[in-house]
Amino acid sequence: MEQHFSTAKSRITASKLSLTVSDSSVRQLKLITIVLLAALLLAACGGSDTPSADSEEAPAAADTATPVTEPEPTDTPVPVPTDTPEPDPTATPEPEPEPTDTPQPEPEPAAAATAAPQEEAEAESAEMPGMGKTFVIVAEESEARFIIDEELLGQPKTVIGTTNALSGELTVDTENPAASVIGTIQIEAGTFVTDNDRRNGAIRRFILQSSQYQFITFNATELMGLPETIAVGDDVEFEVTGDLIVRDMSHPVLFIVTLQVVSEGELRGTAATIVVRDAFELTIPQVPSVANVGEEFIIEFDFVARAQ
């Protein structure tokens, strides 16, 4: 009987244990169900900022979320903001000046208006060429000549041809001699005379061809070596460069000039240069009595010039 009692007691204990286990399982199940419901409610309401463990462990669910459809672009352009500065509300625009009726100053009298230009012209006159006194060559008291050596009948001879058919002028500035000017000098080629008529004819027809080329011309280009001032009674020596034209052939030459200032109204002087015949193609005719005509010859001037 005691064995039966023990067996019955064991069964009762096992039943109690089974009931205890069953009750515990039911409580756990209820607890799990409540937790799941609470999690679902929190997920639906978005009440928690901290992601749940289920969402971290299941990234696939997030990847399969339906993409949000972006709105299609429309044809209406979106205005682009510009950098145009807005006007300063405090800046006050300046008023434009109104025209006034201020009278214009009356012009000065003509004499006063022209006084300044005249003074400037007088101040510059000493530096401008040709602003001195002009002297014209007096042909009757002047002479141009050439000098050349030859052999005549086997004897050395110096041939001199002269003429007073010359013209020209000089402008001398005594206060500023560097501004002085020598104008064009001309000689009538057919008027040279030597001591032999046959030679004179040969010079006119064959050498200078004066019927075709009437003038021998000198055009001065530069005066060098002039003093700072010139006064009456001075003897001045200087150089003149320019172009000598013979039979329309031009060649640069240099004249040595000596000028004597006789008075305020008269000048006297001499000028000389050496010329090479070949420079002007001056060929000497072949004559049995003439030989060894010089390759070079001298051109000289003695002149008198008076003020105009």
Q: SSE order in H/E notation?
A: HHHHEEEEEEEHEEEEEE
CATH topology of the domain at 123-307: Lipocalin
| Low-confidence runs of at least 5 consecutive residues | 1-5, 14-22, 47-82, 87-93, 109-115, 121-130
Given the C-alpha coordinates, what overall shape results? elongated
The number of helical runs is 5
Identify the CATH architecture of the domain at 123-307: Beta Barrel
Q: Ends: how far apart?
A: 188 Å
Number of strands: 13
The largest sheet is: 13 strands, antiparallel
Return the structural class: alpha+beta
Helix content: 25-40%
Radius of gyration using CA atoms only: 64 Å
CATH class of the domain at 123-307: Mainly Beta
Average pLDDT metric: 76
CATH homologous group name of the domain at 123-307: Lipid/polyisoprenoid-binding, YceI-like
Classify the beta-strand content into a percent band. Answer: 25-35%
Quick gist of this model?
The chain is built from 5 helices and 13 strands. The protein has 308 residues and is α+β, with helices and mostly antiparallel strands. It is elongated, with a radius of gyration of 64 Å.
Question: Which helices and strands, and how do they pair?
Answer:
Layout (H helix, E strand, L loop, with lengths): L1 H44 L7 H5 L1 H5 L46 H16 L7 E5 L5 E10 L2 E9 L2 E2 L1 E4 L8 E2 L2 E4 L8 H11 L7 E10 L10 E12 L2 E15 L2 E11 L13 E2 L4 E12 L1
Antiparallel strand pairs: 1-5, 1-13, 2-3, 2-12, 2-13, 4-7, 5-6, 7-8, 8-9, 9-10, 10-11, 11-13
